[in-house]
Design goal:
The protein is built from 9 helices and 8 strands. It is α/β, with parallel strands linked by helices and 275 residues long. Strands 1-2-3-4-5-6-7-8 form an 8-stranded parallel β-barrel, surrounded by 6 helices. The N and C termini lie close together (12 Å). InterPro entries: Luciferase-like_dom, Luciferase-like_sf, SsuD_RutA_monooxygenase.
Length: 275
């Protein structure tokens, strides 16, 4: 099992502090989100995700750095690939790129993008991820669209890695099919669901993904983003139970949010035990 830490820092001092903690503690990955504003409270500080990742790439040496998840509500796939390649160079080949369909109406409103209905969201996710996959694989051919047309794309310089790992957030059958067709990893999270309901849904989604990947002769890494109704820092035993529970249904990696001040004592105990 691999472990990652996700931090949405309010200041650069906080971002730098958690980068040092995560690397020294032995975490495998250091992640941040990609939102223009906090979805619940506009006064809560939110920084640009790719910018924070680039800075982390410059001040760390071992830990992998990544975006969970790039919000396609206000990013063009060709521009996102250019950003990804640049971050990959700064990190000397330690960058991973997650993509999601942009579920928060607040992000759409701030970006001036209409909130998509489920059918259009699914269509856009398939096209967006397909463009990113092709470009990261070196295919810079023109595309007519309908949602993300481009022409004359260039992938110069090429990534440091042979391929930047591509992660896709999905829960429904259409999104899971995009994962099976294009992604190196799948990420899922509870959203507003209760933990037991999410767990049972994850079992079913895992089976669906198994079948889709089996048809295509592919395997993908499976990442749990542990937040919401999942509380990894409630106690050391709760953390251990979470790991055991989700490892049993095929997850390879768990990414936890940075602890709140009142959770820090448990976090430190978990790190000392599992490092």
């Amino acid at each position: 099992m691999r472990f990652g830490l996700k931090v949405n820092p309010g200041t650069w001092q906080e971002a730098a502090q958690w980068a040092r903690i995560a690397e020294e503690a032995g975490f495998d990955g250091l992640w941040t989100g990609d939102n223009l504003r906090n979805s619940r409270d506009a006064a809560t500080p939110v920084h640009d995700g790719p910018t924070i990742i680039t800075a982390w790439a410059a001040i760390t040496t071992r830990i992998r750095v990544g975006l969970l998840i790039a919000n396609m509500a206000y990013r063009r796939p060709t521009v996102l690939v250019k950003q990804a390649v640049s971050i990959d160079h700064v990190s000397a080949g330690r960058f991973e790129l997650g993509i999601g369909s942009g579920l928060w109406p607040a992000d759409h409103a701030m970006a001036g993008v209409p909130f998509w209905d489920p059918r259009e969201r699914a269509e856009r996710l398939r096209e967006f991820v397909g463009v990113v996959d092709r470009l990261l694989s070196g295919d810079t051919g023109d595309q007519a669209g309908p949602h993300y047309p481009h022409a004359g794309a260039a992938l110069s310089p090429a990534p440091v890695q042979p391929r930047i790992p591509l992660i896709v957030a999905a829960n429904g059958p259409k999104g899971l099919a995009v994962v099976a067709d294009h992604a190196d990893a799948w990420v899922t999270f509870t959203g507003a669901a209760a933990e037991d309901d999410f767990y049972q849904a994850s079992v079913e989604r895992g089976r669906t993904l198994d079948a889709l990947c089996g048809e295509r002769g592919r395997q993908v890494r499976r990442i749990l983003l542990a937040y919401g109704s999942i509380t990894p820092w409630a106690s050391v035993d709760d953390f251990a139970r979470m790991v055991e529970r989700y490892e049993a249904i095929g997850f390879d990696e768990i990414v936890c949010y940075a602890p709140k001040p009142e959770e820090r004592a448990v976090f430190d105990k978990v790190v000392s035990r599992f490092a």
